[in-house]
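call fold(seq) -> tokens
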Amino acid sequence: MLEAIIIGLVEGLTEFLPISSTGHMLIANSFLKYEYSDAFYVLIQIGPIAACALVFWRDIAGYFTNWKNPATKDYVLKLFAAFFLTGAGGFIAKKCGLKLPETILPVAFAVLIGAFVIFAVEYSTKKRPLNSNLTWAVVIAVAIGQIIAAVFPGASRSGMAIMGALIVGFARPDAVKFAFLVGIPTMFAAGSYELLGEIKAGNTAGLLTPESIAAYIVATISAWLSVVWLMKFVQSKNFIPFAWYRIVLGIALLVLFTQNIIT
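ret:
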């Protein structure tokens, strides 16, 4: 039970931060040696999606109640466009086999490269002002960021989506919010598909164990806390601390690999 709770905590805290949940899960799994089913992992990924939706429930509700407002229509249209582009791009990438395995070396390199991407993007933002104008360039950049993360596990879905928005001049708080709102239906669709697959395969029992339920609850609560914290953090700070953290994480993954702790 304790190991399941730790796994849920790691997943929840890292899913929406730009630091690679995959990298952290590899480390957690290597030390805990917790044998969990695919159904368990699918379940604890769905919890953070619900948590993110809860954080932005007022915005989501406003899209339904104020749908006649031109600004609301424009925002929702661009949300759906980013979702469609992400889904289409991810589908094409999957059909073409364009996805690296979630093993230590590819993930470690993706974590490190992602750190330097953050450094480069943040450096570029110093030379020009950021604004809250949601353009089609932002939509495309966020979709591309999410597709890159899908192809390169360890890149961080939220991290690449947010960096994509910043590259085209979108303000940090707005970039985080838009990336997360796009991520809700994207991750929900993917998670629901995987969950349905587990149910059809007869793995329903793996979803209903006390360990799975506890891990789901912990992942949901910790994800809610991390999203709330990040939204406050970006009001006054940039993503450079996350870049340094990713360098430490990437080096740690490589060291664990060379010591045969993670293979």
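The longest helix spans residues 172-200.
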